[in-house]
Each structure stands twice: as structure tokens, then as C-alpha cells.
Design brief:
By secondary structure, the protein is an alpha+beta fold. It is 40% helix and 24% strand. It folds into three domains: 58 residues, Orthogonal Bundle (Arc Repressor Mutant, subunit A); 56 residues, no CATH class; 89 residues, Roll (SH3 type barrels). The protein is elongated and about 65 Å long.
Length: 227
């Protein structure tokens, strides 16, 4: 967790109004008590009115984060989206989804903060997250950094091929994740089911966007990746 995110989470925990021990804060933020002491000292030095002391506990005195105004449906949409990511995304995205929800809850008006916890919309994956078996995090990195990936791929007929692919996007068609990319073997756009990839490795170096081989070209030919 980035330090800025950790400090935000710490403010959220202290904002609850009751005295909270450093041990409890450390457990909730998954850091050491020493880190909590250091963060509390830094926040106090920045002017945040934290009451308490080491060994006793801490709380905020008269400090409020500026509220964000969301309607009930907007809150439900955000909660459902985060829960979909938590259930069906990779581990890094799952953590990010939980932290994003905590941030949203922290800046809601107090009269609406309970709506996050009370939203009864779920997207269970029935056991282990399928994405845990897929290299989504490394593919997201390759897409961001425009790095080619090597695939050993088995198609629906059982034929195996090796491909060098320019990864352009990931698309989720429950329960299947697809890699959208420019296949240098076929010299055309292709969609690859990640559950049919026998091997995926970042290999082949960086690439630059070329007209006719970009995501916008794919979408212009095939329509929205979400369709």
C-alpha cells in the first residue's frame, strides 16, 4: 500500500470517533505498530488534531474529511463494481477495490456511510478467484508499458501455436478473460482466451502504436470491447 493511501486509511479509522489502539490500527492497515506511531506523529505534525498517546489509543478531535455526495444508486453501482473486481480480478486489483471502497466510505456524509456496508449486491466467484490462475497483473503491466508478450496458445480444436502479440486490452466476459491484441504471426487482430494460454511471458521488447494496429483500430472494426 502506498504511504498516501495508508495515511488516508488511518484517517478513516480514526474518524470513527472512538479511541483505537495502535495495535488495532496496525492490524487493520496490515503494518507494524512502529509504522502507526510514525504515521500518527507525521499527521499530528501536519496539523491533524489527533488525541491520545502510545499505549493508550488515538482518535480524531473535530476533524472531518470533505464529504462527497453520491445518490443511493451511485453508491450501489460503485460497491457492485468493486465487488466484481474483488471476485474476478487479480489479487492486486482486489486489494485496490477494497481500498477504493474504504476511501469512498471515508468521504461520504455520516448519514450515508452505512449504505456501503448495507448494499446487498454481490458477484461471487464460487470459491477461488479464477483470475488467481491467470497472469492478469503482468498483462496489465505489458499493456500499460506497450511490451510484447509471447503466448503458447491452444485453440478450441486443440491445435497449439506460438504467438508474439502486441497486447492492447483485457476484456472480461464472465467467467472468461480475453486478451485483445495484434498477432504478429497472423498479421491481424486476435482475441485470446487466457484459460487457453499454456504459457504467457513478456518477451520481444517494446512496441510503438502504428496506424491499423492500435486499440482504436480494433474497436473501429469490431465495435466496443465490452459488447
Amino acid at each position: 500500500m502506498r504511504r498516501a493511501d495508508r495515511l488516508f486509511r488511518l484517517l478513516f479509522e480514526l474518524r470513527r470517533g472512538r479511541v483505537t489502539t495502535a495495535a488495532r490500527l496496525a492490524e487493520r492497515l496490515e503494518v507494524s505498530e512502529r509504522t502507526i506511531y510514525r504515521d500518527v506523529a507525521d499527521l499530528s505534525a501536519s496539523g491533524v488534531p489527533i488525541e491520545g498517546e502510545a499505549g493508550v489509543g488515538y482518535r480524531l478531535r473535530g476533524f472531518e474529511l470533505p464529504p462527497l455526495m453520491f445518490g443511493r444508486e451511485e453508491i450501489e453501482a460503485l460497491v457492485l463494481g468493486a465487488r466484481v473486481v474483488e471476485s474476478w480480478g487479480d489479487g492486486e486489483l482486489a486489494v485496490a477495490a477494497r481500498e477504493a471502497l474504504a476511501k469512498i466510505e471515508a468521504v461520504l456524509p455520516r448519514r450515508h456511510a452505512h449504505l456501503v456496508e448495507e448494499t446487498r449486491l454481490y458477484a461471487p466467484s464460487h470459491g477461488e478467484r479464477p483470475a488467481e490462475r491467470l497472469p492478469l497483473a503482468s498483462l496489465r503491466h505489458a499493456i500499460r508499458e506497450r511490451r510484447r508478450v509471447f503466448l503458447r496458445y491452444r485453440d478450441a480444436s486443440g491445435r497449439e501455436t506460438e504467438r508474439s502479440v502486441r497486447p492492447l486490452a483485457l476484456a472480461f466476459y464472465p467467467p472468461v478473460w480475453l486478451l485483445l491484441g495484434w498477432c504478429e504471426l497472423r498479421d491481424d487482430f486476435r482475441n485470446f482466451r487466457l484459460d487457453r494460454c499454456l504459457e504467457i511471458e513478456e518477451r520481444g521488447g517494446a512496441f510503438e502504436p502504428e496506424p491499423g494496429k492500435r486499440l482504436e483500430d480494433y474497436l473501429g472494426r469490431h465495435g466496443d470491447a465490452g459488447e
